[in-house]
């Protein structure tokens, strides 16, 4: 029997020269914040009216199993969807759920009881939810047991340590995966105010990992990380990782997962200053996308935005700021269309001791501008370097020649790659000209052939093993001495 509430409606109407008070007939409305218990199972069917829940609802339940954990099955859910369930939500032990996905949860109790709350705002309404609470049969809540099959979602994980100030975290999974989802609002944060929101919308077969703040300390830090669609072997999105000693914030998003994972880091190991980063991967690739806004930034103000719109089969790499330190640095790097073996865009790499900024863009995925090529694009700083990376040209019937840079000296901070295919197991390399800054280990400027570096003035001929019938050639230069470059021929053996 549901408790009943008497509702009396008073209507006052002014008619002509007098006032008449009309008292409506009593009406009865069921209290919708209700539950039923049978044996060891408690059912909350909200709102229980075969209609939609009310606007501005606020219901609380406490279900006691007198055990250390409880099994919760959400068999029906129709609650307004939001990435962080900020509008309408059912909260179980402080963890918010929304959307339409049913799920099975194993949650730790508080003194043998779990708390359930439903809240709604003043707009969209759904048909609510039905959940069953039972005594847990198997405890699978430990996030450290990677060999078990579990779904774990917690603002503060069981292995977290929070000390000496205010910390909060929200983590949400809409669909669990077979080998676990990991979402940590704040992990081991201390000595400051930190908050994190992390969301995984669709689980993958081997787990999604989303960390709002991990090991943040000694300051104000916040992070939002989202994985929208899981991949077969995991997505990794870190808002702030090991941030300390200052104000840092990061937003990282992976929209579509790939078969071997996407990696997006807002701020990684940022310290001692103000740093912010936004990194986005729109479409995943076969072997992963990597986008780092700020990596190991320290001792100053640094910001970076990096975007990869379309992934390639072997990965795109876009670094806003990498190892920037001791100054102000900012960068924007964008890759619009990926190539088969990766695009590389570095706005600031290893920048230090001053003010530096860079914008790098790759419009269509190839090594040579808009020509199709399998080994990627490279852009550093403000240079669109594929414009100076000459094409390999045919010389005779069987030989390909690379004459770089063709005229004058090669530029500073050059980065060029070529993939020349002979379709044979071995190829002959004939270097007819080489004028590259000399160094004992070719650490400054260098010509690379199949991972072996060459510099100085040496010429000669030799054979190399190919990689599936192709030879990989690359050239890089630093920011100091420039020389006349090289000319080499590649022919089948």
Automatic annotation (TrEMBL):
Q: Which Pfam families match?
A: CUB
Q: Which PANTHER family match?
A: COMPLEMENT COMPONENT 1, S SUBCOMPONENT-RELATED (PTHR24255), CUBILIN-LIKE PROTEIN (PTHR24255:SF31)
Q: Which InterPro entries match?
A: CUB_dom, Sperma_CUB_dom_sf
The molecular function GO annotations come to: serine-type endopeptidase activity
The Gene Ontology CC terms held by the record are: extracellular space
Q: What is the lineage of its organism?
A: Eukaryota, Metazoa, Spiralia, Lophotrochozoa, Mollusca
Alphabetic keyword roster = Disulfide bond, Signal
The source's domain of life comes to Eukaryota
Q: Where is the signal peptide?
A: 1-18
Task: List the residue ranges of the region (Disordered).
Answer: 144-255
> Which parts pass through the membrane?
none
- The record lists its disulfide bonds as 389-416
**CUB domain ranges (all copies):** 33-136, 389-493
Q: What is this protein called?
A: CUB domain-containing protein
**Record carries keyword Signal:** yes
